[in-house]
Amino acid sequence: MSESLSPREVFRKLLEGITAGRFAELAELYAEDAVVETVFAPVGPRRFEGRAVLEERFAEVSGSSPVELTSKDVLIRETDDPEVIVAEWNYQVHHRVTGRNFEAANIQVLRVRDGLIVSSRDFHDHLALAVAGGALPQLVAALDAE
Length: 146
Description:
The protein has a single domain, classed as Nuclear Transport Factor 2, Chain: A (Roll). The chain contains five helices and six strands; from the N terminus they run ααββαββββαα. The chain has helices spanning about 5-20, 25, 50-60, 125-130, 135-145, and strands spanning about 30-40, 45-50, 65-80, 85-95, 100-115, 115-125. A hairpin with a 5-residue loop joins strand 4 (about 85-95) and strand 5. It is globular.
C-alpha cells in the first residue's frame, strides 16, 4: 500500500497541472465529495460540489483559457491541523488575446485527506483577469443582471 501525498505535495501537483494547462487531470486530485468555493468570483457559481462537477468545470476551462499562467513567489503555510495548508502565490499572466502581461494574486486554503482535496477555499484576483481580457463591461453587465 503506497503512502498518500501530503497536503503540500497535493497543492504542488495542482499548481503544476494548472500552469501546464493539464486541466483534464486536475479532477483526479479531488475527493468524490470535494467542495470548492471561489470566494471572490464576481459572477456565476461560487461553490462547486463533487469531483464530477469539478471535472466538468475543468473541461470548460481546458480548451478555452485565453491565459498562460506561470506561478511565482509560492509560499505554503502549514497549520495546526495537519490536513490544512494555506498557499499564497502570484501568477505571472500572459493574456493571449489582448497581449497583456500582469500579475494576479492568489490564496487557497486546502484540506487534504488521504491524498485528495476534500475542500478548498480559493481567493483569486478575478477582477485582474477580467480587466486584462477586456471583459470588464460584460462583467459589470452580469453583475447588474443579478
